[in-house]
Amino acid sequence: MKPQFYLKRAYEPAAKEDGYRVLVDRLWPRGISKEEAKIDEWAKDLAPTGALRKWYDHDPARWDEFRKKYEAELKVNEALHPFMEAHARQHIFTLVYAAKEEALSNAVVLKAWLEKHWK
């Protein structure tokens, strides 16, 4: 059975329903402590590369190109399959991100990729 994936901003309070909370940003969210964030795992290696993140800079005009470039990175990301294998029994994931706009967050792209490729 494939797990359920949800998205939540790091600045929103954690909830029991979140399941396994995975921070999917390369940088830790500003102004929030590790205790406050209640992150189960910080999966930096699933985030876009630093160069792609800096190029994108959450510019809405670059969203479509960012999404394509990030999907290309995910295709060759060696951390993804070990992550999926390590969490094969997990049923609920919340992908935690810091971006102000959920729709423009790398977490949206990662969620779609995981939903499509999870075995």
Summarize the structure.
By secondary structure, the chain is an alpha/beta fold. The chain has helices at residues 34-37, 50-56, 63-75, 80-86, 106-117, and strands at 4-9, 20-23, 41-42, 92-97. The longest helix has 13 residues, at 63-75.
Task: Label this structure with key terms.
36% helix, 119 residues, 4 strands, 4-stranded parallel β-sheet, single chain, alpha/beta
What order do the helices and strands come in, and which of them pair?
Blueprint: E1 4-9, E2 20-23, H1 34-37, E3 41-42, H2 50-56, H3 63-75, H4 80-86, E4 92-97, H5 106-117
Parallel strand pairs: 1-4, 2-3, 2-4
Helix pairs in contact: 3-5
Structure write-up:
- There is one protein chain.
- This protein is α/β, with parallel strands linked by helices and 119 residues long.
- It has one domain (4-117).
- It has five helices and four strands, in the order E-E-H-E-H-H-H-E-H.
- It has helices at residues 34-37, 50-56, 63-75, 80-86, 106-117; strands spanning 4-9, 20-23, 41-42, 92-97.
- The protein has a four-stranded parallel beta sheet, with helices on one face.
- Helix 3 (63-75) packs across helix 5 (106-117).
- It is globular, with a radius of gyration of 14 Å.
- The model has no long low-confidence stretch (mean pLDDT 95).
Report the average pLDDT across residues.
Answer: 95
Question: Helices and strands, in N-to-C order?
Answer: EEHEHHHEH
Helix content: 25-40%
Biggest sheet strand order reads 1-4-2-3
Query: Which band does the percent of strand residues land in?
Result: 15-25%
Coarse shape? globular
Q: Which stretches of 5+ consecutive residues score pLDDT under 50?
A: none
Tally of alpha and pi helices: 5
Q: Which class best fits the helix and strand makeup?
A: alpha/beta
